[in-house]
Amino acid sequence: EVRLLESGGGLGQPGGSLRLSCATSGLTFNNYAMTWVRQAPGKGLEWVSAISGSGAYTYYADSVKGRFTISRDNSKNTLYLQMNSLRAEDTAVYYCAKDYYYDSSALGGAFDVWGQGTMVTVSS
Amino acid sequence: QSALTQPPSASGSPGQSVTISCTGTSSDVGGYNYVSWYQQHPGKAPKLMIFEVSKRPSGVPDRFSGSKSGNTASLTVSGLQAEDEADYYCISFAAANNLIFGGGTKLTVL
Q1: B36/A contact by beta carbon, under 8 A
Q2: Min Cα separation B26/chain A (Å)
Q3: Alpha-carbon distance B32 to A30, whole Å?
Q4: Under 8 Å CB-to-CB from A66, ≥6 apart: which residues?
Q5: Residue among B108, B89, B99, B107 nearest B37 (CA)
Q6: Taking a C-beta distance cutoff of 8 angstroms, is the pair A25, A77 a contact?
Q7: N or C: which terminal CB in chain A sees fewer CB atoms within 10 Å?
Q8: Cβ-contact B4, B23 below 8 angstroms
Q9: What share of chain B is helix, strand, coil (3-state, %, to 5)?
Q10: Mind giving me the DSSP string for B65-102?
Q11: What residues of chain B lie within 8 A of the CB of A35, using their CB?
Q12: Helix (H, G, I), strand (E, B) or coil at A90
């Protein structure tokens, strides 16, 4: 069974940084692109960032481009999201999700396994 | 880019069918066949229901179907059941390597 477990959420200061992790198990991690999706309290889903299986290709939503960095360590089966220059509007539950497609570097928007989410609150 | 447009709410009685629309532009929904649909129950992670406009992942009941016409994609739930009550979100690939979600639709089973 494929499992994803996010960690690293918590309270961040405006202008500060947080690093989220997503530990995975039950899959050949380097064969799948991974994605971060967030959901502000009481709001809808927002795609944040994605990375190809090899890590060679990365994609970002305009709202986080230049502030967030997605990365992965395939030796540790772990996905990361480095969040810098935090803003109040970054407050959300952050989900990591596995791409449905095997060995694809394209953005298909199909994510078949999700973590339980980690809450990030940006406030002074 | 703006979120795709979904109706805030939809409803139907058990056994009925309901269709949820997702309207974008030629730069997203209309330009690509990469539209997916997610079901989200309160406090839970989203679940993939439809991908590539009309394909169902293994384990998703065939009561769920997807289609697209022009810039509008649609999710139809047939034979409504109580457990179908949830929020539904569409997502589409968009130009310049973006993914855009719809605002979400709350489906109520009366």
Answers
A1: yes
A2: 17
A3: 26
A4: none
A5: B89
A6: yes
A7: N
A8: yes
A9: 5, 50, 45
A10: EEEEETTEEEEEE-S--GGG-EEEEEEEEETTTEEEEB
A11: 99
A12: helix
Residue A49 pLDDT > 80: yes
Instruction: Give the length of chain A.
Output: 124
Q: Which residues contact A42 (CB under 8 A, 6 or more apart)?
A: none
What's the pLDDT tens digit per position in A12-40? Answer: 999 999 999 999 999 999 999 999 999 99
Query: Chain A residue closest to B3 (CA)?
Result: A46
What is the full DSSP assignment across A24-64?
A: EESS-GGGS-EEEEEE-TTS-EEEEEEE-TTS--EEE-TTT
Tokens of A68: 């967030």
Name the residue of chain A whose CA is nearest to B5's CA: A44
Mean pLDDT of B1-7: 90
Q: How many CB atoms lie within 10 A of CB A52?
A: 20
Q: Is B82 exposed, middle or buried (0-12, 13-18, 19+ CB in 10 A)?
A: exposed
Looking at the DSSP bridge assignments, the partners of residue A37 are A47, A95
Instruction: Convert B28-57 to b/e letters by CB count within 10 Å (16 or more is b).
Output: bbbebebbbbbbbeeeebbbbbbbbbbebe
Amino acid at A108: G
- The token duo for B11 is 């409803």
**What tokens appear for B107 in the block?**
């489906």
